[in-house]
Amino acid sequence: MGRYAPVMVGRYSAAAVCTPGLELLCSAELADLGCRPKPAGPGTVEFAANARQLYAANVWLRTASRVMVEVGRFRATDFAHLERAVAAIDWSPWIRDDIAPKFRVSSNESKLYHTEAVAERLHRQIGAPAQPGQAEQLVIVRIKRNTVTMRVDSSGDALHLRPWRTEIGPAPIRTTMAAAMLRLSDWSADAPLLDPFCGSGTIPIEAALAARGMPVGGQRRYAFQHWADFEPGTWASVAGEIVSRHRSSAGQPIWASDRDSAQILRAKNNAERAGVSDDIDFSTNVVSHLKAQTGNGLVITNPPYGKRVGDGQLDGLYRRFGSQVRERLAGFDLTMVCPDSGLAKRADRNLKSVASFRHGGLRVNVYHRSGQVPSV
Ligand SMILES: C[S@@+](CC[C@H](N)C(=O)[O-])C[C@H]1O[C@@H](n2cnc3c(N)ncnc32)[C@H](O)[C@@H]1O
Asked: 12-153: which CATH architecture?
């Protein structure tokens, strides 16, 4: 993706929130949008943004869960400090009669440690919790070593909740992690792609959306569209880019298979909702019968692993998968996610860990090897 807009002095002190471990990938995406990102602790990447960049970050970031805007940062060791500092903030751009605040408070190593009591005080001061049917504005309050950072959410529904992924199987990969794997694999839609354990289709659908220059959130609405300082003209221009970047096809074949026909049905339905069903060739197939392909390409996948699918009898499956890739897809790169380096090496001893994060309660690694490898 090329640079999005010239770097300008930011009006918003923004922060993208991502899964810890994805900060550098999220920073690279922000740099593509013309921002100057600065990782600021686990799961947070700060950047200055004008309205255009803030809107574009919500539309185009694939590895972030939310984009927040800082509204206050101050020290507070008791409720009196907190209330004084909060009273100095003008909340009118975000909180109105028809939009109630919703506070999500966390506290570490701080005197204000009772997070529910903090939220209660904030509600008393800024506005009552939402009545049924009333819209909400999420405010994230982080208290760390007595420094309070308050950020309003500009996204609304979390960005990782892709609107098209309404059907999932037993062990779906997180959408932002699928996007991270694609970025780590260096695939730029210039070669065929295969996911032979595709489940509900998350990886191939994220790939097809990227290949077609489509945003992952479709035609959704964002919280910033309710803000008092919302700029409809700027938004129209960002939305116009969605149309101008749109390509009519993925360009290269994307194959996705799974042994479970119910998973393939879910994947097809998800792809249909995402608007990329014509780009992905889905089939019900076991990994021991992969179709041979010549030339270059990428195998990118999330095979079953013990604690989530199966019962630990996975060595044979990984060996079969690895030998199929070497024999039938000899020119393909391989990117896969797995919590167990021993298991990953059963598939291919040349795999190297390129990233690590927590997923489904486990620490998992993304493994990658590129190019032709000798048979083992
Ligand atoms: C961890 S899940 C993949 C989840 C997927 N990434 C998603 O987001 O839904 C692993 C998948 O491997 C499939 N699978 C297990 N053994 C297989 C085999 N021998 N051949 C093909 N698929 C298999 C399972 O049916 C399951 O859908």
From this structure: 2-Layer Sandwich (3.30)
